[in-house]
Specification:
2 domains; binds zinc ion; mainly alpha; 5% strand; disordered N terminus
């Protein structure tokens, strides 16, 4: 996942002010209610994170989910990771094999918010960190100011770059890649190869326009990004605003509301149904330029 036009300047916008919350409450539309819930959740998590010990969160995640984490001593990243892991637990979806916060500066991914490892060796990361990261692990970029992520998500959603402006979207997006990958590994012997194949771009204009309209511009890149963007949107829209946990029934209901053709494409991408994907002209594409969410 990547925020467009990222300049490497730091801003500290932080908490969403009461005036913005009031404005959103006044609008009273489906979209404004969702954003209001996200902003309220963000403010609560932000305040909680100010007094949080990231090492303690790391130990809890290790005990509960057996996931190795390294939050680089960043408490809000620790909070976001714990919330996302709990969301995936409630959904019954596979969680990443590891979670790391690293500075991508100087690598191929320096403008990415995060990545999910789908290769055993990544030359660009290896040359900087002198190590490989586990397959299916999630690595978030330490450069963005995660304390102001809610503020940053709003204009990005307005440009239709991402499918939602929820503050947890960048984390959920990468966790979905990891769960999708786990699903393919379970289903296919060559799940890794299939996961990488599905990072090839869509080339059919009709398919691209449909996804842009129904999901987001970023989701229109490839079957992998379609899944990540679409599932992220469905997950955040099923979250209880108080607990920030999904209502599984709502999640399934929202899924059913998708238009038929999109449904078909999402199922074909989730399960790697080659025949169905052919219908969307996807196999014509040999371009694989968007690996690990890097444009
Ligand atoms: Zn992605």
């Amino acid at each position: 996942m990547k925020v467009q036009n990222t300049s490497r300047t730091v801003s500290f916008k932080g908490l969403i002010p009461a005036s913005t919350l009031k404005e959103l409450a006044k609008k009273n539309t489906v979209e404004s209610k969702r954003l209001l819930n996200s902003c309220l959740g963000f403010n609560a998590v932000y305040k909680g994170a100010e007094n949080l010990n990231p090492d303690k969160v790391a130990r809890q995640i290790q005990d509960k989910f057996h996931i190795n984490t390294d939050f680089g001593n960043n408490p809000i990243v620790a909070s976001f990771c714990a919330l996302t892991a709990n969301i995936f637990q409630k959904l019954g979806w596979a969680k990443p094999t590891g979670f790391f916060l690293r500075d991508f500066n100087g690598t191929y991914y320096q403008n990415a918010l995060g990545i999910c490892m789908t290769h055993k060796r990544d030359d660009s990361l290896y040359s900087k960190f002198k190590k490989d990261f586990p397959l299916r692990s999630v690595i978030m970029n330490s450069f963005p100011d995660w304390w102001s992520i809610q503020e940053c998500m709003i204009p990005v959603r307005e440009q239709n770059h991402f499918s939602t402006n929820h503050f947890l979207a960048p984390f959920i997006h990468e966790f979905v890649h990891s769960a999708h990958y786990a699903h393919l590994l379970k289903k296919y012997k060559d799940g890794t190869e299939i996961m990488n194949r599905m990072q090839r771009e869509f080339t059919n204009q009709k398919t691209i326009v449909m996804i842009q309209k129904e999901t987001s511009n970023y989701g229109a890149q490839s079957p992998c990004e379609l899944i990540a963007e679409e599932m992220t949107e469905l997950i955040v829209n099923s979250l209880d605003p108080k607990t920030i946990l999904p209502d599984v029934k709502v999640f399934k209901m929202l899924r059913k509301q998708e238009p038929n053709l999109m449904d078909e494409l999402i199922d074909a991408s989730w399960n790697y149904d080659e025949e169905k994907l052919k219908k969307f002209d996807w196999l014509k594409s040999q371009v694989c330029a968007f690996m690990y969410d890097k444009k």
